[in-house]
Amino acid sequence: MSHSRWKTLRERKLAEGFAEPDDVAEARQEIRLSMALAQAVYTRRTELGLTQAELATRAGLTQAKISRIEGSDTVPTLPLLSKLARALNASLNIALDDGDTQVTFTAHKTDAA
């Protein structure tokens, strides 16, 4: 079954009053958050023109760890997130609302003088 067909089937079931089990809904939210973080790290890293290896060196991590973060294969700890933000010269912003997750890195302002 194709993804688009699966999505249509899921949406139809939800519209008919089917309630997704809590553990499935929770897992879906965790995946969304992990994917949002992965995209934010990748976007900021490429904005800076860094390779995964260069970011890893800046953050005191391994290239494999950066790859796992960008691949949504790991759930980083707060200290690791702090290292990433410093290495990316940015503030990490996470907004969690019902069904809406936003993860962004906001570049630090640099003094022109």
TrEMBL record:
Pfam families: HTH_3. Residues 41-95 form the HTH cro/C1-type domain. The lineage of its organism: Bacteria, Bacillati, Actinomycetota, Actinomycetes, Kitasatosporales. CDD domains: HTH_XRE. This is Helix-turn-helix transcriptional regulator. GO terms for molecular function: DNA binding.
